[in-house]
Amino acid sequence: xxxxxxxxxxxxxxxxxxxxxxxxxxxxxxxxxxxxxxxxxxxxxxxxxxxxxxxxxxxxxxxxxxxxxxxxxxxxxxxxxxxxxxxxxxxxxxxxxxxxxxxxxxxxxxxxxxxxxxxxxxxxxxxxxxxxxxxxxxxxxxxxx
Length: 145
Known about the structure:
This protein is α+β, with helices and mostly antiparallel strands. The chain is about 25% helix and about 40% strand. The radius of gyration is 17 Å and the shape is elongated.
């Protein structure tokens, strides 16, 4: 029997990018994967990391999706004012995610319990950039029979 798969990764990433772009406009470019163009003094990259099977049933399954969100500031030698800006943007992202605990995807399914589980400052060993990593997770019921 032929199946009709749904690309849940694409649906979730597209929705996250749309939410972030709606909030930040052109002030914070948002890219998926390694498509970043490194434009401007700051940008955000969404990097899909993993999916874990949480519940398996004959009629559906629940998976937890993990996406790393990397916030880049091109100012590596971050001073007080620049750090204040980084922390303000990160707090705004965390609040935005909190306000979008449930998100309806393109296929009308819902990703729920969306959250930022961890935020780590100055995480990557980038020569010329200050990088903040936010670990975003959600649950999604898919493969409905």
